[in-house]
Amino acid sequence: MDFVEYVCDQAKNAGTLSFKKMFGEYAIYLEGKVVSLVCDNQLFVKQTQSGRALLQTVVEAPPYPGAKNLFLIGANIEDQDLMSRLFKVTANETPAPKPKKPKTKKPATSAKGVKK
Known about the structure:
Blueprint: H1 2-10, E1 17-22, E2 25-30, E3 33-39, E4 42-45, H2 49-55, E5 60-61, E6 70-73, H3 80-93
Antiparallel strand pairs: 1-2, 2-3, 3-4, 4-6, 5-6
Helix pairs in contact: 2-3
C-alpha cells in the first residue's frame, strides 16, 4: 500500500483522490472516476488524447494479463506537477461511472425453501 499512497501524494494537486483495493491491486479515483491502476507497484493511467499529448512519449502496457493497454508511467512519476495534470486531464476525458442498480430484496424463504 505504500506505493499507492506515494502515487496519490504525487498527484495530490489534481483534486480529491482515493484508492480502493481490487483483486489484490489498487484502483485510484479522482473525484469518483477511476483514472489509474497500481499493479505490481507500477502505475498505469487510462489512455486519453490529452494524456497522450501531455506525456508526449508514452509506453503502453496491460496492467494484468488480458487487460487492454494503459499508459505505463515510469520516471515521470517523480514530477508532481505532471502527475497532477495527467490525473486531471484523464478524469476530464473519462465518463462518469454508471449509477449502480438498486439491490432488490429476494423474497424470504422458510427453512424448507417455501416462499413466505
